[in-house]
Amino acid sequence: MEKRALVVGAGLVGSLWAVLLAQRGYEVEVYELRQDPRSAGFTGGRSINLALSTRGWRALDKAGIGPGIRETAIPMYGRMMHSVEGELTFQPYGREGQAIFSVSRGGLNIALIEAADRYENLRFHFGQKCLGLDLADNTIHFEQLEDGRRSSVQSPLIFGADGAFSAVRRSLMKLPRFNFSQEYLEYGYKELHIPPAPGGGHAIDKNALHIWPRGHFMMIALPNVDGSFTGTLFLPFEGRKDAFEHLHSDEQAMAFFRQHFPDSLPLIPELLQDFRANPTSALATIRCNPWCYQDKVLLIGDSAHAIVPFYGQGMNAGFEDCSILDDMMEAYQDDWTAITGEFNRERIKDGNAIATLALRNFVEMRDLVADPLFLLRKEIAAHLQEKYPGDFLPLYSQVTFSHIPYSEALREGAAQDELFNRILAIPDIRHNWKKSPEVDRIFMQWLNERRS
Amino acid sequence: MEKRALVVGAGLVGSLWAVLLAQRGYEVEVYELRQDPRSAGFTGGRSINLALSTRGWRALDKAGIGPGIRETAIPMYGRMMHSVEGELTFQPYGREGQAIFSVSRGGLNIALIEAADRYENLRFHFGQKCLGLDLADNTIHFEQLEDGRRSSVQSPLIFGADGAFSAVRRSLMKLPRFNFSQEYLEYGYKELHIPPAPGGGHAIDKNALHIWPRGHFMMIALPNVDGSFTGTLFLPFEGRKDAFEHLHSDEQAMAFFRQHFPDSLPLIPELLQDFRANPTSALATIRCNPWCYQDKVLLIGDSAHAIVPFYGQGMNAGFEDCSILDDMMEAYQDDWTAITGEFNRERIKDGNAIATLALRNFVEMRDLVADPLFLLRKEIAAHLQEKYPGDFLPLYSQVTFSHIPYSEALREGAAQDELFNRILAIPDIRHNWKKSPEVDRIFMQWLNERRS
After folding, report:
1. Around Cβ A71, how many Cβ atoms within 10 Å?
2. Which of B180, B183, B282 has its CB closest to that of A182?
3. Are the C-beta atoms of A205 and A246 separated by less than 8 Å?
4. How far is CA B47 from its chain centroid?
5. Inter-chain contact A181–B176, Cβ cutoff 8 Å?
6. Which residue of B165, B170, B172, B181 to mutate against A (max A Cβ within 10 Å)?
7. CA distance B230 to B74
């Protein structure tokens, strides 16, 4: 077959995918709405830093840029919880040495575009707005932003990597029996800047993801290489006492921070300016089915499965799409009928599973992480993982530090909930779990039930 | 305020709603994609007959056309089940004399348009394709199908009654935080014509909705005034032994009907012609939230809540939107900020509830109606309704023969499931329920629990 492909979107997923296609000898055309970030500066994208984890690294390594990215990625070994009183509690993400990595969205995107641009068989077309597809002959239409000139390109394979508001997907939506949903959270978010400490360096522990959990809302902060942190406040838009609708004046914003995040005030000197200047953005979950049109058009990344950011898996899931497809190109020797068929059949349930997990993790982050019983569960889970490494991997580790399909992890998580319902029902568990043989007995029983 | 409104869509809901607006003195402009069905003949719409029930009648009576429609509507007092062997079982829908009414979509639509056209303050514009809205100034754009001429109309109130694939809704979808989903059933449907009996009259009992339940698929038939019935086959598109994908040749179709619906063969003389000529259509559930843009644009009927047809409530729910809004115009004296606010706050959950009920009723119709335990439950429910009329109204009656909000009926249905789980667990219930005091005892206990 003709090895020629067109990718819509040169964001994280589109440019990584373009590299993998080029590596396998495809002639690749990449069309992107924005201008070239290498010359125009990086704009857009919803958050300025992201958490890379195991699934994402595999794809970056496939594309040959893992080592370069590792040089500036900042490992975060766990969550650092800030109480209202300013007390800190650290909770590791996995086993010793395991971490998720804070990376800059702009830096990573530029690194991917640079990597892609090294291939002679790959060309970028920036400033090109996708107007839609003619599915009858796989022709795609663009408008050049600078001069409004329109062009049409025919390609045997078109990939929609154009994000949550995908124009490629909009064309597929007109097909009969195309299932689609976009669901917004009733929460918005606002980014706030935590500058480096006076004299340089990070003002708070740089090797942790900081969380200020406050029940129905929260703030988080991720480290940047320049010593700063990016803080993000997640808060209901309206309908509650604590909501963006009640934070219009400087006085209201300041009173809110004084009440709920007093220890953060010295860290965010430009709080009021940031609060006024930065947008309050919305958070959506997007699901659709199918992800393909025949063996000719395929959606990947956010265009197929945009999720809320609370499991740190949005980018990782999109990158995993790429590495799975790369494996399939190998296995099926570029038979795209087989590849799109299997990807569509097997991967959608994983996209749905990580969407569900991400929504649930919001409750965990904003509420449960401050719950003593939840922390106890984490401790016991770590003990079980340590003692029975082949038989117990906590859900968080399955999602973050493994390549287990998300849908399997979701099922496994339900079984683990059942286990911990039994364990946490042990009388006086809080004080004697280390000494009591009950935990291990219940675990072995649970394990035997699952094996039979 | 200025009493001026624009309605997009002159289908069942749009033309009924236009009448109610005109009655209250609004200057009403109605724009419709299709040509005037009074001159061009009725085209489109997915099924040619529909089941009118209590909610729908109320709105038709408000619009003053109830009596006229009653003259030709055919009462269906219950379900007539056809077994593979051709045995018939009748199951009443409600109390004696209660019925749902088979009406012709085209006839009803034309009657509504004629009723609307009697108002001097109401104008129809046919053959006008809605291109979208400018929400900034509530301007809506149309293209005249005949000559491609475009026009723009500004209106303080715009109603989207333009159906499941609403162009008005498409404009709202671009708003931030607009939730939307379209979900297709894995089933398609095909209409088949059952002509009048030789010599005129209906070939099978005209006062019933006929069902051929076959587990994972079914056929139904509704009577028409000319003595014919419209049959509809609901069958999976693919992926099962019995599926449209396996019915390509005449031989396959005929063998399928011989095996599953032998008693229908003499009724459908043109079976093979119908099967080839009639489309296999898809069935979608559409949900969105909000249904309005400020107090300026409001979605009603299928554009807000398209549902599958299995509860016979699609049209009735759309008509109920109209009568609820009409009540509100009265109560709030045309304060559209109050009306759109409350409608959006209160009615969406009812739209979601009837969507859920309709999906569930498919299982009931195609599978459970042939289940002896399900029939027993229906009998006991009828007994309870008879004996405790103030305390027990079966779910089906709440939906079909009452104005109880759908969301309340859905909740009530869950409680009734719980009741019947207990009743049907009585040993040997099948044979002795009429004599045993247990049924009444359990019912009273259930009632007391709910009251406390």
Report:
1. 7
2. B180
3. no
4. 11
5. no
6. B181
7. 13
Contact B181 A181 (CB under 8 A): yes
Q: Which of B38, B36, B7 is nearest to B20 (CA)?
A: B7
Q: A-chain residues within 8 Å CB-CB of B282?
A: 176-177
Kindly list the residues from chain A whose CB atom is less than 8 angstroms away from the CB atom of residue B179.
Answer: 181-184
Q: ipTM value of the model?
A: 0.87
Phi and psi torsions of A275, nearest 5° = -60, -40
How far is it between the farthest Cα atoms of chain A?
74
Residue of B nearest to A284 (CA): B177
Which residues in chain A are contacts of B181 at CB distance < 8 A?
Answer: 179-183
Question: Which pair of tokens denotes residue B374?
Answer: 């399900």
Distance CA B126, CA B40 (A): 11
A182 contacts in chain B (CB < 8 Å): 178-181
List alpha helices for B261-371, DSSP H: 271-277, 302-305, 314-331, 336-366
Angle between helices B105-117 and B12-23 (to 10 degrees): 20
Q: How many CB pairs under 8 A join A and B?
A: 32
DSSP secondary structure code for residue B368 in this structure: G
Report which residue type is found at A443.
F
**Cα A447–Cα A450–Cα A452 angle in degrees, nearest 5:** 110
What lies within 8 Å, CB to CB, of A118 at 6+ separation is none
A-chain residue closest to B173, CA distance: A182
Q: Which residues in B204-314 belong to E strands, given as ranges?
A: 209-213, 218-223, 229-236, 281-289, 292-293, 297-299
CA distance between the termini of chain A: 48
For B390, the 3-state DSSP assignment is coil
Q: Residue A283 is which amino acid? A: L
Q: What is the pLDDT tens value at each position of chain A, 452 positions in all?
A: 789 999 999 999 999 999 999 999 999 999 999 999 998 777 654 567 899 999 999 999 999 999 999 999 999 999 999 999 999 999 999 999 999 999 999 999 999 999 999 999 999 999 999 999 999 999 999 999 999 999 999 999 999 999 999 999 999 998 989 999 999 999 999 999 999 999 889 999 999 999 999 999 999 999 999 999 999 999 999 999 999 999 999 999 999 999 999 999 999 999 999 999 999 999 999 999 999 999 999 999 999 999 999 999 999 999 999 999 999 999 999 999 999 999 999 999 999 999 999 999 998 888 887 788 888 999 999 999 999 999 999 999 999 999 999 999 999 999 999 999 999 999 888 888 888 889 999 999 999 998 88
Instruction: Establish whether the linkage from the previous residue to B372 is cis, with ω within 30° of 0.
Output: no
Is pTM beyond 0.80? Reply is yes
Interface with chain B: mutation pick from A166, A179, A238, highest number of B CBs within 10 Å: A179
